[in-house]
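Practice problem 4.
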């Protein structure tokens, strides 16, 4: 991404926004006036500082929503200098984002988690639903990492949301809510940022947004952004280099509002984002070619280093078009939300160690073992979704919403493993014509593994929810009926594959209810009790790569083909209090999980399998507190304590514990505790400006990546090595080596910022993130059961940055009244 492109974005937005009137501060009142288009009416009597959300498909304040919810506003996002959902999660109780690389993350809420999903598991379904306004954008591992600029807020809905948001919301729902076009305001913002990582490279960004009324009944909001991410991981080996994991993100959002009459709103929108990373945030301490057994050991114990023979890359091009329309009939409002999502995703990684470890086992010789090998995963997605709902309006005691949902998804996943020169060695060792014989109709050469997996998923649902208020008590009940079908073909070839070609179908249907009792004795306090069911759709496992499996692993993992729907009952009690500048919301919950879909690494097979665990649970407490003890001082706390465990034991045919699924063991990827404390102080600098300072401390407890990582002896791997200097290789099966605990250590992130904000709308902010340069371990990375490489996905190092932000805006002046008629 060129800096000239960034300059063009900012210049064009500035040119449109500059003639606007003087800037007005974006306070909560402005947010309440524009919560989201076409979602019921804005509630009356919104008090200053209250945040309006649409978590119930009706506009209401956070304090009035009768279940646990968090809303991070645009101001919160800017204060935290947040760039990703992972940054936001540090300040939200019970929200965990497991970073698995650029554009790849797993989101969990309230400890509902089933293990690490990796890049070649396209059939795994989500446990947390992700939405961009009205559009579902969840895609298991590849949830789009949308830029956070010009968002109104990010809503985190805790607990199952299957009633209103459907499958994939078994743990909860995340909603990116963007700022919407306005008919009577010209406003805009331009933001520039520059930063540098300790020991890494520089990043920079330029972003702009403008809202322009085009006619009395038409308005447009245009957002454009470009960002270059600095790198901080160094590569050693044949493809050595500094800061190899840099990248960029560019995109736009263009939305229109057409309101020919007050009752009718039509909002078409186009969203495009292109994200690219030139490497992964991985830190290795063992690699087939570079380890304690070889004569050359470049990695040593250095932080933020990888061994590479080939460059790596992640690319995600996402295009989204949606149309939301509503008509207010008076007592009811009809809303239609249509969306189409098209995505092209590429994950290209250095798989030389993977192919080389197989070559060691097959005895193909030193030259074959040392060949560079590139594993290329591509995903093409076409998704259409349609929702229609009818909702009551007004302030009467009886409120309701009822609707239908339909989605159709075509997902084409392909995997290739180009390894130039490989067929010669295979045919020499295993017999002439072996490579061609195992191709299985693909017509590829020097490609020891290739697979095509086209999916077609369809889902239909009817949903409804109603509430009735009896004095201080409100009763809420609802449910969702769903019907799901999935069809896919698995076609594979190459020496490493089982040569499969089969078509599988799976389907399910069910009903997910929710019931809530809310007691509100006064405007400042409410007590809420909830029982709700959520669901996660089942699916089909890929066949094992039998040629790569040891006989033991083939016997253990070969019997799992289909896995059933995962269901969860959530029981929750919480309260909400807000008065005199103090807001305190807390909840205790228990999740009873049936048929938990656990993902396990199938050892030497270089495969993952999903299987159902009959019983599991997660329970805990969460709390969020904000207060204003002094003029200009804002303090907040967000924290949670969790206990998420298996309640069933799963064994192999020989009685051994399978993949760590033992009663009493922890569920993976989620910490036992996490908390964040933030402080913000603002004071006048002079008559035209204020100065401010922010600080935050976030503590994330220890975690495990996969259930088996907590079992005795989990750190013992059969390490396979190849020495490029001597040409010597380890024996097949590797050398048993204990690398120690696989638990991910707890870590603490400390951030700070300071700046000046002028009444003219100019803002200057200097910030430091991860002040103490903590090398946070986010997940444990292993290739082929550890036989190829071992390492961690890691967090960002210390980062110094400077942000300049200029806001403009003001209401459009009303046209002058017509002149009075001339006197008779």
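Answer key:
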């Amino acid at each position: 991404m060129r800096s000239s492109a960034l300059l063009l974005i900012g210049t064009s937005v500035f040119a449109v926004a500059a003639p606007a009137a003087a800037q007005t501060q974006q306070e909560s009142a402005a947010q309440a006036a524009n919560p989201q288009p076409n979602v019921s009416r804005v509630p009356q009597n919104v008090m200053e500082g209250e945040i309006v959300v649409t978590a119930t498909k009706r506009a209401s304040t956070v304090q009035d929503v009768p279940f646990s919810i968090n809303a991070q506003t645009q101001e919160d996002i800017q204060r935290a200098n947040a760039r990703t959902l992972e940054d936001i999660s540090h300040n939200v109780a019970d929200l965990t984002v497991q970073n698995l690389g650029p554009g790849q993350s797993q989101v969990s809420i309230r400890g509902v988690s089933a293990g690490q999903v990796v890049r070649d598991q396209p059939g795994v379904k989500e446990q947390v639903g992700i939405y961009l306004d009205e559009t579902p954008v969840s895609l298991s591992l590849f949830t789009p990492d949308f830029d956070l600029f010009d968002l109104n807020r990010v809503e985190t809905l805790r607990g199952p949301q299957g009633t209103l948001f459907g499958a994939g919301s078994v743990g909860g729902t995340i909603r990116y809510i963007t700022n919407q076009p306005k008919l009577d305001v010209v406003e805009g913002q331009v933001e520039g940022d520059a930063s540098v990582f300790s020991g890494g490279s520089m990043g920079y960004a330029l972003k702009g947004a403008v809202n322009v009324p085009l006619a009395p009944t038409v308005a447009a909001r245009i957002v454009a952004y470009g960002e270059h991410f600095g790198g901080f991981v160094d590569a050693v080996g044949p493809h050595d280099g500094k800061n190899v994991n840099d990248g960029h993100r560019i995109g736009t959002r263009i939305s229109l509002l057409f309101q020919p009459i007050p009752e009718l709103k039509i909002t078409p929108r186009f969203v495009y984002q292109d994200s690219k990373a030139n490497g992964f945030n991985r830190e290795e301490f063992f690699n087939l070619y570079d380890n304690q057994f070889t004569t050359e050991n470049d990695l040593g114990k250095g932080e933020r280093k990888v061994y590479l023979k080939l460059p790596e890359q992640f690319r995600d091009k996402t295009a989204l078009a949606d149309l939301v329309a509503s008509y207010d009939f008076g007592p009811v409002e009809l809303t239609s939300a249509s969306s189409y999502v098209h995505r092209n995703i590429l994950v290209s990684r250095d798989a030389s160690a993977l192919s080389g470890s197989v070559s060691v086992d097959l005895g193909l010789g030193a030259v074959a073992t040392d060949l560079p090998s590139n594993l290329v995963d591509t995903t093409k997605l076409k998704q259409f979704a349609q929702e229609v709902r009818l909702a009551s309006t007004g302030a009467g005691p009886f409120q309701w919403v009822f609707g239908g949902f339909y989605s159709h998804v075509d997902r084409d996943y392909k995997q290739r493993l180009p390894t130039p020169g490989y067929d010669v060695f295979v045919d020499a060792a295993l017999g002439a014509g072996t490579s061609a014989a195992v191709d299985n109709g693909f017509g590829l050469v020097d490609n020891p593994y290739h697979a095509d997996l086209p999916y077609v998923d369809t889902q239909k649902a009817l949903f409804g929810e109603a509430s009735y208020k009896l004095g201080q008590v409100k009763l809420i009940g609802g449910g969702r009926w769903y019907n799901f079908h999935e069809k896919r073909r698995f076609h594979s070839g190459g020496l490493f594959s089982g040569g499969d070609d089969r078509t599988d179908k799976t389907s399910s249907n069910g009903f997910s209810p929710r019931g809530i009792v809310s007691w509100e004795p006064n405007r400042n306090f409410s007590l809420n009790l909830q029982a709700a069911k959520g669901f996660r759709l089942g699916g089909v496992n890929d066949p094992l790569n039998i040629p790569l499996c040891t006989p033991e692993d083939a016997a253990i993992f070969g019997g799992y083909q289909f896995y059933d729907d995962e269901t969860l009952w959530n029981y929750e009690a919480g309260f909400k209090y807000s008065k005199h500048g103090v807001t305190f919301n807390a909840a205790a919950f228990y999740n009873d999980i049936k048929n938990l879909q656990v993902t396990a690494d199938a050892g030497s097979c270089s495969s993952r399998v999903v299987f159902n665990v009959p019983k599991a649970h997660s329970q805990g407490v969460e709390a969020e507190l904000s207060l204003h003890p002094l003029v200009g001082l804002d303090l907040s706390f967000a924290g949670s304590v969790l206990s998420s465990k298996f309640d069933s034991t799963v064994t192999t045919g020989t009685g051994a514990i399978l993949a760590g699924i033992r009663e009493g063991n922890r569920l993976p990827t989620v910490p036992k505790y996490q908390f964040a404390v933030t402080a913000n102080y603002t004071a006048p600098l002079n008559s035209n400006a204020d100065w401010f300072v922010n600080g935050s401390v976030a503590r994330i407890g220890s975690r495990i990546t996969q259930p088996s990582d907590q079992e005795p002896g989990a750190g013992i791997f059969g390490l396979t090595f190849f020495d490029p200097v001597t040409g010597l290789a380890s024996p097949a099966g590797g050398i048993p080596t204990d690398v120690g605990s696989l638990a991910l250590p707890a870590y603490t992130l400390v951030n700070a910022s300071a700046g000046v904000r002028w009444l003219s709308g100019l803002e200057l902010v200097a910030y430091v993130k991860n002040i103490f340069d903590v090398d946070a371990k986010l997940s444990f990375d292993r290739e082929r059961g550890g036989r190829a490489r071992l390492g961690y996905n890691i967090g960002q190092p210390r980062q110094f940055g400077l942000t300049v932000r200029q806001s403009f805006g003001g209401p459009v002046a009303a046209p002058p009244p017509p002149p009075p008629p001339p006197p008779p």
